[in-house]
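Sequence design from tokenized structure. All designs in this work follow the same two-part layout: the structure record, then the generated sequence. An example of the structure record is given first.
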């Protein structure tokens, strides 16, 4: 048993499921001596016996002969293997149809046609991840079936609608996480990538942090770049404390877009000389090849800078021999040549996008916190860990010193590739140790409310629909009112919940114990939020998010409050009082039912949640009034 208590997990397993690579870190809480360390899984299938890697490629290949899928490094042993299987990658961002449609409009190849197909790919890949996590940890500790295991996942900040998170949760469940022992194993989405990277920065700071320091986190990975402004409440790396200064932001910028841009560069060359009779798949396969990926990962480092880069085509399994040359295409001896400036241009488009987002964060500081300074910018993620990316950002900020960060330091995380997943595990572990999360507060990214009735006030509820109270002739109710529990931009305590009390009236003998509550969501500015529903439809920007059915079927009548006990007082009735607690996560909502001051759990599922498709898919408007792009290919 974990020394934190009977209900505490024995193992915490963090999974950073990425667009191009996936990382896993875990910690063992069964032994006090192990709680100060995390372990990353490095023994991925497909690696040479003497090799280790901190992350595994987010790839899965389905052999055409119907045999079991190959995944990760097993897809990279021989590039000729691509002819024998359907290789799928870069599928993470396609959990909503807008992303798929946007990618199609840009000519992106080999992407899922539907959200359902994307969920299948993600579930199939995560199934392989789960099975290897189980093998790796059980090899070190023995069977975990009867141990308490928590799996925690990060999510990109660009996932700003509930339906995307719900789809991801469904894929996690289908992959088998927590299925082996549902009573003791659990899986959930926990922090955004920017938040998790911030936690890792706090426990492993580049140098000593002080209370009041403001840090800009920039986690640039394979498919997205996530940014967050964080203020330090406690700089002690043993028990750090942070709070969000502004809501986290995310854009579709990442290393996968460099692959896409390189593919287009090659294809443009090929289109100019169709007489070469080269395969239609050459551009796509060259962008996926190990030779290009090596160039991309090492670009900007002294050893990675060359005057020209030569990529072998004869290894792609497309019938190009080592003797083939085509000067106009830049092919010599079976190798296609690219200049340093061509490779650099691939990076520069993405870097300009990252710099634009950094400038937006600094402009926000200038407008909203004019007397405070950003002490440092910390870069993490695969792309954020690039030396070339850091150098170019540094050049820009030196040439354009921000008013709120004239002496701002630009630093790389101590472990850029694993910053997110280590932050995930550490945050959960600290909450067990200290009773509080590292990130104390976050800024609400949307407004949430309930549709309700309130006592009628003729001065306030002009034109509202009303109904008389059946038990009190003096009371009248105003219907279809909106009670906003939290508004966009509010500071939300991560260690507490938003509570909304409810009461329902029952006549003696009434066996109904199921009560519906409608939850509302809006991404509009808080001052635009209405207090009531009028007409036949909600106002623009206000959506029904879900209906929660609270089920108190095991509560006995005498546990409710009896009213009008005396005959002359009127009709006798009971008041059923209960509370719905709402826990607001970055792109997720969790609900709890409480009765008589305790969380209600009497042998059945107390809450049934029915999500509204339109409301769950609502996302914030952009500056021009359109919905935020979610295609993941913004540059």
């Amino acid at each position: 048993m974990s020394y934190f208590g009977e209900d505490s997990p024995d193992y915490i397993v963090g999974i950073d499921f990425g667009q191009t690579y996936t990382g896993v870190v875990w910690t063992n809480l069964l032994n006090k001596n192990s709680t100060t360390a995390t372990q990353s899984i490095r023994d991925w299938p497909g690696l040479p016996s003497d090799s280790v890697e901190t992350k595994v490629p987010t790839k899965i290949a389905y052999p055409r002969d119907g045999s079991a899928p190959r995944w990760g490094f097993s897809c990279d042993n021989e590039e000729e293997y691509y002819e024998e299987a359907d290789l799928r990658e870069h599928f993470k961002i396609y959990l909503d149809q807008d992303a798929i449609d946007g990618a199609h409009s840009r000519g992106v190849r080999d992407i899922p046609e539907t959200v359902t197909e994307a969920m299948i790919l993600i579930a199939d890949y995560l199934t392989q991840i789960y099975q290897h996590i189980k093998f790796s940890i059980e090899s070190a500790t023995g069977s975990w079936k009867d141990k308490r295991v928590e799996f925690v996942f990060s999510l990109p900040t660009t996932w700003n609608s509930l339906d995307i998170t719900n789809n991801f949760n469904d894929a996690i469940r289908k992959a088998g996480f927590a299925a082996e022992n549902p009573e003791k194993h659990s899986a959930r989405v926990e922090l955004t990538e920017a938040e998790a990277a911030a936690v890792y920065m706090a426990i492993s700071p580049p140098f000593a942090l002080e209370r009041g320091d403001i840090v800009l986190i920039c986690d640039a990975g394979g498919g997205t770049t996530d940014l967050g402004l964080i203020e330090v409440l406690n700089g002690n790396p043993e028990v750090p404390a942070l709070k969000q200064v502004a809501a986290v932001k995310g854009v579709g910028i990442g290393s996968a877009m460099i692959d896409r841009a390189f593919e287009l560069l090659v294809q443009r060359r090929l289109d100019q000389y169709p007489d070469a009779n080269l395969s239609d798949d050459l551009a796509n396969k060259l962008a996926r090849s190990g030779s290009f990926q090596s160039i991309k990962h090492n670009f900007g480092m002294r050893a990675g800078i060359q005057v020209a880069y030569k990529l072998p085509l004869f290894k792609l399994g497309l019938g190009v021999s080592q003797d083939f040359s085509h000067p106009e295409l830049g092919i010599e001896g079976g190798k296609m040549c690219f200049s340093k400036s061509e490779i650099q241009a691939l990076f520069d488009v993405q870097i300009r996008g990252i710099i634009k987002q950094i400038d937006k964060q600094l402009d926000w500081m200038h407008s909203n916190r004019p007397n405070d300074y950003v002490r440092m910018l910390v870069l993490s993620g695969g792309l954020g860990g690039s030396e070339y990316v850091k150098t170019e950002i540094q050049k820009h900020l030196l040439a354009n010193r921000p008013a709120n960060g004239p002496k701002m330091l630009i630093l790389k995380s101590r472990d850029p590739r694993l910053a997110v997943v280590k932050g995930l595990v550490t945050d959960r572990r600290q909450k067990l140790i200290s009773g509080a999360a590292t990130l104390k507060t976050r800024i609400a990214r949307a407004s949430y409310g309930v549709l309700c009735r309130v006592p009628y006030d003729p001065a306030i509820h002009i034109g509202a629909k009303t109904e008389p109270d059946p038990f009190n002739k003096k009371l009248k109710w105003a219907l279809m009112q909106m009670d906003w529990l939290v508004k966009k931009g509010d500071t939300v305590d991560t260690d507490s919940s938003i509570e909304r009390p409810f009461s329902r009236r029952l006549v003696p003998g009434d066996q109904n114990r199921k009560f519906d509550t409608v939850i509302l969501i809006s991404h509009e500015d808080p001052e635009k939020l209405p207090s009531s529903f009028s007409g036949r439809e909600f106002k623009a920007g206000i959506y029904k998010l879900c209906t929660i059915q609270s089920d108190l079927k095991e509560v006995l009548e005498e546990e409710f409050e009896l009213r009008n006990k005396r005959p002359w007082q009127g009709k006798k009735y009971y008041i059923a009082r209960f509370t719905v607690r709402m826990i607001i996560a970055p792109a997720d909502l969790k609900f709890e039912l409480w009765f008589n001051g305790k969380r209600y759990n009497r042998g059945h599922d107390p809450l049934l949640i029915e999500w509204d498709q339109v409301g769950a898919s609502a996302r914030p408007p952009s500056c021009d009034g359109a919905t935020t792009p979610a295609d993941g290919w913004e540059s």
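The first strand starts at residue 11 and ends at 17. We note this feature because it recurs in several other targets discussed in the main text.
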